[in-house]
Amino acid sequence: MKGYVFHGAGESAWEEVPDPAIKEPTDAIVRVGAVTICGTDLHILKGDVPEVQPGTVLGHEAVGEIVEVGSDVRTVRPGDRVLVSCITSCGRCSYCRQGAYGQCRGGGGWILGHLIDGTQAEYVRVPYADLSVHPLPGAMDSKDAVLLADILPTSYEVGVLNGNVRPGDTVVVVGAGPIGLAAVATARLFSPERIVAVDLAPARLEAARQLGADAVADAREAPEQLVTDLTDGLGADVVIEAVGVPETFELCTRMVRPGGHVANVGVHGAPATLHLEDLWIKNITITTGLVDTYSTPTLLRMTAAGRLPTSELVTHTFPLDLMEEAYDVFGGAADTGALKVVLGEERHQEVVPVSST
Fold it and tell me: Looking at the predicted structure, is the pLDDT value of residue 12 above 70?
């Protein structure tokens, strides 16, 4: 089969790799029908995630069909259409028993495309399949479902829930990429007074408006002043960091009000300064986190009911064998307008650029 293989910082290729095989009785083999690329994959390619060894197949999000299961798998069987979660759960360790699957100590957590071969391939081995794949309704489009593998539960759990968004809040989302846009969409579920999106790209700011942001701000044009003006000088109740660079994290800490929350979602590859000389007196809460995906069943039900705007986040589609082109488009989002790209083996659709108006 073929897969997208990491060969070291700046080096990767869509190439022949060995077919996966059942290694443990809790494993399943999934034939990949739809897969997507995450911003974390770009961090890996830049060398920001040193745990990823050269030779690893990347990817941690997929929809596909079960083709083989180990002898201990009970909840799925060959022929089932499933969502492959970005988080693998042993279900037995102390963290999994608390629903903190991202911190699994039994061989799970974020392992696909990180510590073991991932989903950007024709087939993938999924450990602990009973808790790490989710059966899908037959009518759910793969392009919608694959967004529930990572970006929607990540933005919802690590951004909105960790940030403690409540009715009447002012919520600022810094970074209007896929995670930030999903945070805008899921923050709306809690009826905040206003949502402000901050980014550099006009197309992404327009996408944020379409998904429910009440105001947008160019990151180069004093977003702090806009938030100050909107909140009578107090600052935002919740600020969600969805970029992963020092400048945006520090911007978030400047925009939060006393007693507010900064929820960091972005994957950071460099140190950020924590200005405790200014923050110690403000009673703020700063949270970080890897998604646990405990919310995935709920988000699946909401998507099936048409309550979440998944399709609006997908701007480009490709067949699997154009993985390298898809990476170029996604990695060059400033020029291509890409938000989320989805690759599938069933058909090739025309690339659909985001409007720049």
Answer: yes
**Spatial separation of the C-alpha atoms in residues 62 and 14, rounded to whole Å:** 17
Measured in whole angstroms, the distance separating CA 111 from the mean position of its chain's CA atoms is 15
Domain assignment present for residue 190? The answer is yes
Same domain, yes or no, for 277 and 300?
no
Amino acid symbol at 42: L
Q: In what order do the strands lie in the sheet with 170-174?
A: 215-218, 194-199, 170-174, 236-241, 256-264, 285-287
Mean pLDDT of the region 38-48? 92
Q: Which among 40, 47, 46, 22 has a CA at the least distance from the CA of 120?
A: 40
* Continuous segment of H or E residues that includes residue 291: none
Answer whether residue 219 shows pLDDT above 50.
Answer: yes
Both structure tokens of 222: 């004093």
Count up the domains in the chain and report the number: 2
> Helices 39-46 and 323-331: crossing angle, nearest 10°?
90
Count of alpha carbons within 13 angstroms of residue 204, beta-carbon side: 30
pLDDT confidence of residue 194: 98
Q: Domain range spanning residue 101?
A: 2-150+293-344
* 65 & 179 share domain: no
Tokens encoding 316? 């480009």
Residues 141 and 170 in one domain: no
129 and 12 together in one domain = yes
User: Tokens representing 50?
Assistant: 């040193």
Structure tokens at 186: 């899921």
Angle, vertex CA 335, rays to CA 197 and CA 215, nearest 5: 15
Q: Do 169 and 302 share a structural domain?
A: no
What pLDDT score was predicted for residue 138?
79
Which amino acid, residue 331?
A: G
